[in-house]
Fold each of these.
Amino acid sequence: MTTLNRRSLRHSIADGLRERVVAGEFGPGDRLPGEPELARSLGVSRSSLRAAIALLEEDGLLRRLHGSGTYVTDRPLMRNDLSRNFGVSSMIAAMGLEPGTVDETCAAEPASPEVASALGIEVGEPTSMLRRVRTAGGRRVVDETDWCRSDLLSPPAMAAAAQGSVYAALAERGAVVHHGVATITPDVAMGDVALRLGVPRGTLLLTLWQVDSTAGGAVAMVSREHHLADAFEISVYRRGPGDGGEDQT
């Protein structure tokens, strides 16, 4: 069997197990059948099964306890790889969870100093603001606010994108997002953010401030996302000192 085939098999097994967890066949805290029994039922080798389980451990869906067995985690982590710029819904769906949107608010809003600086406009100029709470399997996990120039995306057009992708709406108007630059800061939920996420005040958050630009460098959108810290694992691809010709001395 080739390396590619082995990789495909373990991912196929992992996808099948993930679907069974999402369907409720194995619930949070449940112990999976033993490896020999589970491998027989799936018609795969134990080594392939172990490789698939390792993938689901990395995703935070399963955990192995030495001498006890493999268990479904109570609350799987969603992995947000910041080297890839895609929407929150796509990230949630990639984890096998049902993405949703609640509490949408869209309005014309004067640009704050921070938003104006990012968009390259004057403070107080009109922007289209969309605020919404993103859910994963019914759980509120992200409080997100997006701002665009109103001449690029009007408030009604932005409201129409509330249940879908603002990126897609921007692309339809010729502003295809090519890249984004994100800044991450530790935070706690207070006031309206805590209420919207349905968590106690002081709950740990990871706050992302992101500026999205076209290939030509024009800023298309800025966003602030408050992620529940216990729901996400954030990773970043970092090049080594030998990748780019920097002085390594």
Amino acid sequence: MRKIGLLPFTILYWLITSTRNVLFDIGVLRTLSIPGKSISVGNLSLGGSGKTPMIIYLTHLLSQEKSVQILSRGYGRKTKGFRHVSEVDTPSTVGDEPFDYYQKFKPEVDIFVCEKRKAAIPRMKSQNGSAVILLDDAFQHRYVKPGFQLLLTPFHEQFLDDHHLPSGNLRESKRGASRADAILLTKCPMLTEEQRLHCLKRYEEYQKPVFFSQIEYLEFQSKGKQNAQMKAVFLVSGISSTTSLNAYLCEKYEVQEQKFADHHAFNKQDIQEIHRKFDTFANKEMAIVTTEKDWVKLQSLLSESDLQAYPWYVLPITVKIQEEQAFNSMILNYVRNN
């Protein structure tokens, strides 16, 4: 019933986004074709599709033989305009994801933020004209045209099954997927060959290479008081979806959760509330667990006494692509091709 009530707004949104795309297609709205090599990682829907782990995966892959620059909008930051991330920055000045990239890859990889990517590209090129540019969440940002576009869609929330905003989560028509050079289904469970072939058949109309990836959870990293007998987890997160993370943790631990909004700007009051709630469980076998993306914001708020008193842990993740050799070859062949 609610979706029926939203139908007029859904039609209006579809008209606006479709008209915008037509204007780009016929050249009324001008697009900057990014010189050199560039790869966009994005999606058609709102919500987490695994873009951040994919940017990290591509950076590891490409930086072995190429210079790499990463460009992000810097969502949630308190600054404006073009910014080259440096040691003076924090998550509040550049956003949590760019700051996470910076901490992982400094000084080898240059990280930039700018809400207007078209303005950022020439300034980035002036600093390193031969670098491969990775664009984080730029599939809808058609004012720039990357050389290669990778479209992500979560296995359990595929854009094929979604609807336009506000009835669903699609930011534009499913036809937009035709702009992609490859489609990557993320957060996949273990698939049988029959399930995999069925999925591939669904995407045949797009005539694009289709790949499957999984999230792999690595060993906990202790950041505070250690808990050698961990049997329960108090999950603290400010990411768009914790479905996969919860499922993984629930296989091994009793899980309690305190969930904040995506890109939440943590403060001292949040830390006090987290510790207060943790204390109510009175469970000596419980640890506080958070994500790498959240930790970049939380760490500066935790005092030395906090870390001595509370068992804070970070759970790192990585991406495992089922057809890894074929996927890597596709990306490397693109950047090596002159």
Amino acid sequence: MVGGTDGSAIRNEMYWTVPDADGSVPGWKHLDQTDLPAEGLEGASAVVVGSNVIIIGGTMRDGDLSSAVRANLAPQEPFFQAGLLGAVVPALRIEGEIGQQLGYLSAAGAGTVNSVILILIGWAYAHPKSVRAFIDRRRGRRPGRGA
């Protein structure tokens, strides 16, 4: 459900739900990031293409809309992807500006760690003798001797 009017004002919210296996609706979900532009929209035509809806035409507070608006019908629940193997951990849902800032910090931290790992891998490939000597020292062998 996206846009429309409540009888007194044009709305801009988008709500979605996923029915259960028996067809009942457990509840409607809403994310501010998926809303229409601030003016809202009513009287538009909707076309579903895959997991997206394209809303064509309609009326905004300032007048008729002569373009289209696209929205995703199946936004994913928040999650964190951790580690090199990509273990998926459900995210804490913290509402408001604080939650958004925590998400940015988490993404920046993951990006920084991944960048450091890639730099170390690149350095290891560029310096194979140093890496072999390091591994030999860790195993208690003298450098230059075979197993």
Amino acid sequence: MIRTIFWKNRSVVMIDQNALPQTECRIVCTDYRQVIAAIRNLAVRGAPAIGVAAAMGAALGALALPPQPTKAFREKFHSICDEIAAARPTARNLFWALERMKKRLDEVIRAGKSNPTAVLAQEARRICAEDIAINRQMGRQGSVLLSDGDQVLTHCNAGALATAGYGTALGVIRAAHAGGKKLHVYVDETRPVLQGARLTAWEMKKEKIPATLICDNMAGSLMHQGKIDKVIVGADRIAANGDTANKIGTYPLAVLARVHRIPFYIAAPVSTFDFSIKTGEEIPIEERRDDEVTAFRGVPAAPKGIKVYNPAFDVTPARLITAIVTEKGILAPPLPAAISRLQKGRI
């Protein structure tokens, strides 16, 4: 199994996703600011993986704090969490993990325990382990949606590298493949940072799952030719009505899938749902650096000084989504009602 991120000897170890696919190496973070840098520069990316990294970064920050009164410790820990939260604005899992860490600290304080740092480190490791288990459960839940012989299109990277291990959308594909279904995966390159070409293609090769890499603008043509049976992608935040933010380029795929009558699935853990926002209009969309578009790994690809628009995500309306796969089950339309039941624990 690909271990994207884990805790070892009071440090956070993660695969450097910026080095893939040429080099498989790891980054060792001993300070929470190093974790923030890794999140910002995409060394670790994917909503669930960012959530795990945030929790572990918060634990690192807590371990570095000197002995101090409980109130002061809590204030400083919250300040550390706020710094981590500012790393990337869209991924709901980042905020969910930090909220969970703060809640755990409050429980420790109320219980009068003398060593909150050990408990916080334990909680971060628990979040990591739970993420892998959740992804495996999600894979089992969603594998029923894929049929033997399906040709499946995916966008960006929603695999083991986007999580602590196993994956969300690719977890569904992995589970179906492990169950004996013969699948072929079409991998969108995913401009501008090429998460599909660099990361998803790498995972498919590593897992020996048949796959073909395509440019983003080829998807519609393949659909027209009848070469795509299903589309499945991950998510970075899902609103209460089912509107879903995912890597830029997801929305046009959903539109194309609807025109060609192809099922369009989302796979995401419950921690990706933001029940506090009604629609996708409220989801903050991160805009990233110009040089991600104008160059690749330092090699210019556009005229110097050209104006750039570089949103990292777009929002797919719930009406274009066939179903959402979670670890709790598959949510079918009407999605607002299904998500309401999910929130109330009735699924």
